[in-house]
Amino acid sequence: MKSAGFSAIVIGISPRVAFAAPNSLKNLRTGVQPGDKTRLVIETASRPSYSLSYGEKQLIVNLSNTNGHGDVKPALANGTLINRITQVQDGTKLQIVAALTGAIDAIEKNQIMVLEPNGDNDYRLVIDFARGTGRGIDANAPAPTTTAKNETKNTAPQAGAKQHIIVIDAGHGGKDPGCIGKGGTQEKTIVLSVAKKLKSKLDANGYKTFLTRSNDTYLKLGERAEIAEKKHADLFISLHANANPSRDMKGFSIYTLSEKASDEEAQKLAESENAADKIDVDGFEQFSKDIRVALSALQQHAVAELSEEYATGCAKTMNRASIEQQPGPAVRHAPFAVLRSTVPGALIELGHLSNKKEEKLLKSDEHQNKLVAAIVKSVKAYDFDV
Question: Nearest to residue 100, comparing CAs of 86, 118, 82, 124?
Fold first, then answer.
């Protein structure tokens, strides 16, 4: 697969609603992107519900509950891998069949995005791909279908399936204790304990996991993000515990990366977490340069979408597990340095050490196991693949 400079956009497809008005095709066009990539743009009147499948030298985009339109003539750019596009209406499903000049590999999720209406454009399903070997594609079998947001899906690895890689980041460490509870509990200790438990449970469920730190070690934020990049992670989970001037504040919250914070509290929290690097001042000015990766607009949007998708699912599993949520939105957005990478990820504030009762809970194995169980469920429900 799985970015800075973006705001989060919800990926995939809208919930399937019985008797929903059918979608309609508005436009079809292709273009050339850097790296000899072909871009296919499918414009529809409302947010598309889609899946991909593959034939021999064919890319097939299946649009649920969508009507084709004979007057829509594809605008085909020169130099792409697509030489013809046809519409096939199959009941309520519309198939957009792109005839290709050569083989392609299965298209990864981070090469697909859905753009909101903008100016003269309606919803756009944008797919980028390059020439490949065709290996790993069964021409007779449809690609996995993206699941609707309100559906539950267990995507734990099956025998012979790709082993997804997850990097678990225990925040703070070493000379940076993080926040400290009234009873003296240090954030770095709590999150390391939870991280180790989470790794053990995810390993047992067939995932390949790595910890950014396995002991009381100080790491710069850029080093944490770099580990996720080097491990080619499919998901990055950064664990933290919160503090608030109000001793009554409690509950979990989840954050994804955005250059603009969703609220003042999110901005202050990001500033607090980002300040961890200033403990080791040498090289701090170089920090943002070193970890910012040059991304295409598509990658930026895709990573934002995937991060938002995971964070939203994680919040739901925490709520279902009766883990108390901090007042306000469960998922917020802010410019967290540790999340700046090409890997989808979220920062989970497990609770408030500044709250006496929650400090006691966070120290207990029982509550830590409850948190871990919920996060494991969120990973299993997350759709890693298109």
Answer: 82
Are the CB atoms for 315 and 328 separated by under 8 Å?
no
195 contact partners, CB below 8 Å, separation of at least 6:
168, 169, 170, 211, 239
pLDDT at 13: 30
Q: Which segments of the chain are extended strands (E)?
A: 23-33, 37-44, 50-55, 58-63, 66-67, 82-90, 93-100, 112-115, 123-129, 142-145, 165-170, 208-211, 235-242, 253-257, 331-334, 345-352
Distances (CA, A) of 191 to 45, 99, 178: 45, 51, 10
Joined together, the tokens standing for residue 236 give: 């990055």
Closest to 344 (Cα-Cα) out of 304, 287, 374: 304
Q: pTM score, two decimals?
A: 0.61
Q: Is residue 63 within 8 Å of 48, Cβ to Cβ? A: yes
CA-based end-to-end distance of the chain: 11
Between 7-11, 127-131, 186-190, the lowest mean confidence (pLDDT) is in 7-11
Q: How far apart are CA 100 and CA 102, in angstroms?
A: 5
Strand partners, 374: none
363 phi and psi, to 5 degrees? -80, -20
Binned at pLDDT 50, 70 and 90, residue 267 comes out as low
DSSP string, 252-314: BEEEEE-SS-SSHHHHHHHHHHHGGGGGS-TTGGGHHHHH-----HHHHHHHHHHHHHHHHHH
DSSP string, 17-33: -TTPPPEEEEEEEEEEE
- The first and second tokens of residue 53, run together, are 């499948």
At 192-236, the pLDDT tens digits run 999 999 999 999 999 999 999 999 999 888 788 889 888 989 999
What average pLDDT does the chain have? 80
167, 236 Cβ separation under 8 angstroms: yes
Whole-number Å distance between alpha carbons of 380 and 377: 5
Domains in the chain (CATH in brackets) are 23-145 (2.60.40.3500), 165-381 (3.40.630.40)
pLDDT at 300: 60
205: Cβ contacts below 8 Å, ≥ 6 apart:
156, 157, 376, 379, 380
pLDDT > 90: percent of the chain: 51
